[in-house]
Write a structure and sequence with these properties.
By secondary structure, the protein is of the alpha/beta class. The chain has 2 domains: about 150 residues, no CATH class; about 80 residues, no CATH class. The protein contains 13 helices and 8 strands. Strands 2-1-5-8 form a 4-stranded parallel beta sheet. Strands 4-3-6-7 form a 4-stranded mixed beta sheet, with no helix packed on it. Helix 3 packs parallel to helix 4, helix 7 runs antiparallel to helix 8 and helix 8 packs antiparallel against helix 9.
Length: about 325
């Protein structure tokens, strides 16, 4: 499958994370890695719900409150209820951006509008719920249940960050494929993702095979829709050392007739050292890529797993 290398993946993001002074206190929450490193390889689509909904900057702080009728958004001191205004704006905004092919979204953690996992919800008699969800984030996730989303704080975890950014680039490939749906294109897409999917969910990978293999028996659009559901399910499962070692061992098997005894021993040792936490995964990946190039293995050259994102992001140096 041909990917347009000049088109960057589009990623939604809370505007304050890019250093824009849109916070309630007139400040920002600049994340240098997101803006200055990841930003070189994606096109951000910044959104600040509270500013765009007309709440102004600076503004009275907002809090979420649990009531018998559900969660509401109130100003901190005056207790003005802005729930309807935020919800209405959110739904209109989602209609406005529905033609943008977003490949992921980075939300500001703990925000009453954007928090995904850790927004504070005040409860009169039960104390504070620290696992709430902001109003815009809730509307967004309901509208795009298959799109991967994260909070900037969770992206400090190397495994979560690697998984999220892999998803961005896989979704970008999917969007390109989706513009001209063909079974042949889907087959090539699936072939290139074999080891990436194996590193996330070997079980779901097995379920995806028959969808592609039997694609001539059902409508193309139905095949694509079924495949996308399984793709999302697989990528939601985080890879780990055990699953990655399984993939690395499989790839090593392609060179059983090329490597001499000492080379095989070295590669096996490097893979085991990664599995035991002594080396980051970039070490066995680099060695395998060396052999892929040396022996000109066309199949492995097309495997997304071996080059899932730009080296400059240095994601695999830390997992």
């Amino acid at each position: 499958m041909v990917i347009n290398e000049f088109v960057k993946p589009k990623v939604g993001i809370s505007t304050c994370l890019l250093g824009e002074a849109v916070r309630y206190n007139g400040g920002h929450k600049l994340d240098h890695y997101i803006r200055d490193t990841l930003g070189k390889f994606v096109d951000f689509v910044p959104i600040c719900p509270e500013v765009e909904a007309g709440f102004g900057t600076p503004r009275e702080a907002l809090h979420l409150h649990e009531t018998e009728n559900g969660v509401v958004m109130l100003t901190e001191k005056s207790k003005e209820d802005l729930t309807e205004k935020m919800t209405s704006w959110s739904r209109n905004k989602l209609k406005e951006i529905e033609d943008i092919e977003l490949c992921g979204y980075i939300f500001k953690s703990k925000s009453p509008s954007c928090g995904v996992y850790r927004a504070r919800i005040q409860r009169e008699e039960k104390g504070v719920n620290l696992n709430g969800r902001g109003l815009f984030a809730q509307e967004f996730i309901s509208a795009y249940p298959q799109l991967i989303v994260e909070e900037e704080g969770r992206l400090h975890d190397p495994v979560i960050r690697d998984n999220f950014i892999q998803n961005i680039f896989i979704n970008h490939r999917w969007n390109e494929l989706n513009k001209n749906r063909s079974i042949r294109g889907l087959m090539k897409f699936h072939e290139s993702l074999k080891y990436s999917l194996m590193s996330h969910s070997p079980r779901i990978l097995k379920e995806m095979g028959p969808i592609v293999a039997n694609s001539n028996k059902i409508d193309t659009d139905e095949v694509f829709d079924l495949y996308k559901v399984k793709l999302v399910e697989a990528l939601k499962e985080l890879s780990d050392k055990k699953k990655n070692k399984n993939v690395l061992d499989h790839i090593m098997g392609y060179f059983k007739n090329n490597l001499d005894k000492s080379e095989k021993a070295e590669l096996k040792e490097v893979i085991n050292n990664y599995y035991n936490g002594l080396l980051p995964i970039i070490v066995p990946i680099t060695l395998l890529n060396h052999y892929v190039k040396k022996y000109d293995d066309i199949y492995l050259q097309g495997q997304f797993y071996l080059n899932p994102h730009p080296l400059e992001l240095m994601l695999r140096n830390h997992v």
